[in-house]
Specification:
Elements (H helix, E strand, L loop, with lengths): L7 H16 L3 E10 L2 E9 L7 H18 L7 E6 L9 H6 L4 E6 L9 E9 L3 E6 L2 E6 L3 E6 L5
Parallel strand pairs: 2-3
Antiparallel strand pairs: 1-2, 4-5, 4-8, 5-6, 6-7
Helix pairs in contact: 1-2
Length: about 160
């Protein structure tokens, strides 16, 4: 996996909407501008430091963000705006995500099986750098390079 950096359209949108989102008491977790089939989607993922995100929270953010985007018109072609929660198992794809999640339980999936044959590992994110992550798994620190990983997500035990 590669760390994602804001750039171009996503950075422009982030810079525009972040003051609105933070003013409403939320955080912008990620901005994605993606094409699916014939349609373009502008996806804004929000989070909260104090609570879970509900559909009402997404609705509360959508209207002022949509109004601002309509006014400023930063994207030439038509697109579908989606505002949603980053989710319980949010993807960690940016440097700020790894910084914010030190000490959190995460799930990492390897491109190929790790030593021992497993493709996934769950552990506490102890540290990270440009090369990879260090997880504490069963009281042992293990390092995984980003090149060996398909993804890293927050982990939630559903049961």
């Amino acid at each position: 996996m590669k760390l994602k950096k804001f750039g171009g359209t996503e950075q422009k949108i982030y810079d525009m909407v972040a003051p609105i989102v933070t003013g409403l008491g939320y955080l912008v977790w990620d901005v994605r501008y993606e094409k699916e089939g014939a349609d373009w989607y502008l996806r804004i993922f929000i989070d909260s430091e104090t609570d879970t995100i509900s559909i009402n929270d997404c609705e509360k953010v959508t209207t002022p963000v949509s109004d601002l985007l309509d006014e400023k018109d930063p994207i030439a072609q038509s697109y579908i705006l989606e505002v949603s929660s980053a989710g319980l198992e949010a993807d960690l794809v940016r440097e700020s995500h790894f910084d914010a999640c030190i000490g959190c339980e995460v799930r990492a999936r390897g491109i190929r099986p790790f030593e021992g044959g497993n493709r996934e590992v769950v552990g506490i994110l102890e540290d990270w750098d440009k090369e990879g992550i260090t997880l504490k798994v069963n009281d042992t620190e293990q390092k995984y390079s980003f090149q060996s990983l398909a993804f890293v997500k927050l982990y939630f035990d559903f049961g």
